[in-house]
Amino acid sequence: MMRWRCRGYRALAVDCAEGTLRGRQRARLERHLAQCPACADELEGLRHLPTALKTAPMPDPGEEFWRHQRQAIGRAIRNLPEPGTQREPAWQFAGLQRSAWRYPLAATVALLLAVLAYRMTERPPPPPAAEDAAAAVATLDPQSLVALREFMESLVPHDDSLASAAPDDETVLAALPVEDVIDAGVLPDAPQARDLSDEELDGLGALVGGIG
Amino acid sequence: MDDAALIRGTLAGRREDFEILVERYQKPLYGFVHRLVRDDAQTADIVQMTFLHAYTHLGQFAGRASFKTWLHQIAQNECRAAHRRGRQTVSLDEMSEASVHRARVDAGHSGGTDPAADGGPGGSGWRPVLERLVARLPFRQRTVVALRIFSDLPFADIALATGTSENAAKVNYHHAITRLRAWLREADR
């Protein structure tokens, strides 16, 4: 069963068993051990068991094996590129291999990339709606309104300019009565005098007051 | 010549300097790996791979820990990969009661017997039994025990090699030793 109140003493017990615990920490552990037989028992184990394990002999496959393995490693490294010629990743050059800044930096770069991507796909803002313009005008003081009005009027052409404007032929013709168009001889279907018979010319002369 | 000089020499293109490092750490590394995988052929392969990885990545060795610690870190990663491929456990049933009893006595469970006096040279094989109990530990605890007891690394270096805090390494070690004692008691019933 987990002894929750003993959890904080485990690392101290290891230090104590190795003889590296001093001062207040040692006194703190000793106070705990005086009232906790389980921890005291564990401390005994930490003192004796590693000592027993340390006396275990190292596995030794023999001198022949060691020599053979050294030769094999030596042959292998002669077939490998020199370690100094290998290019290290940029983040290692920057000393970021175990840096505490590694993850925050990566997160910041990711955020910046996300913002950049958003800005690149962002549409231009829509033109202001008419009501927005009206609302903007409503905020102007009288003097500004007068100035604005003058400016707007300056954009409207005067009558002179209207007269000098040369509307295109089709517009003018569309505005004329059909007879005028016929007189102008520009209506393709308008019969020409030379195409009329004598009777028709007489009838037409009577109609307009005599042309013959 | 110290490790740093040999590393500089290797990086400068003198492969023979790296061979000196191999000779220096070959045996302790073998002992460490063997305690984790408990297989002669696999141990030999892992040790060889560890040195080749160390050679090819020597330019990345930053010197925050010792070269020995760095080698153990690489070896531990190789062992973990091997461990994932095939878990190995040892049953208490595989061990004779007498052997377990000797191990228990050595661990100070019977009247505070001096371990050295009971299990000296020529003893009845309690050490292999105890080592096989170590092999039953969860991989992380086994690694910490092997690094501390067999490879004699300080807890600060164990923390670097295993990627944990120093305090976590000590707590793992505490759990491992407590568990070993519990198994010894269980086997003695």
Describe the structure.
- The complex is a heterodimer of chains A (212) and B (189).
- By secondary structure, chain A is mostly helical.
- Chain A has twelve helices and no strands.
- Helices cover 63% and strands 0% of the residues of chain A.
- Chain A is elongated, with a radius of gyration of 53 Å.
- The model of chain A is unreliable at 87-97, 157-167, 181-193 and 208-212 (pLDDT under 50).
- Chain B has 189 residues and is mainly α.
- Chain B is built from ten helices and no strands.
- The longest helix of chain B has 23 residues, at 15-37.
- In chain B, helix 2 runs antiparallel to helix 3.
- Chain B has helices at 3-11, 15-37, 40-56, 67-85, 97-106, 115-118, 126-136, 139-150, 155-162, 166-188.
Protein topology:
The complex is a heterodimer of chains A (212) and B (189).
Chain A lengths: L9 H8 L5 H13 L1 H18 L8 H16 L11 H4 L8 H20 L8 H9 L3 H14 L3 H6 L4 H7 L2 H7 L13 H11 L4
Helix pairs in contact in A: 1-3, 2-3
Chain B lengths: L2 H9 L3 H23 L2 H17 L10 H19 L11 H10 L8 H4 L7 H11 L2 H12 L4 H8 L3 H23 L1
Helix pairs in contact in B: 1-2, 2-3, 2-4, 2-8, 3-4, 4-9, 5-7, 5-10, 8-10, 9-10
At a glance:
The complex is a heterodimer of chains A (212) and B (189). Chain A is built from twelve helices and no strands.
Tag the structure with descriptive keywords.
heterodimer; A: 212 residues; mainly alpha; 12 helices; 63% helix; elongated; disordered C terminus; B: 189 residues; 0% strand
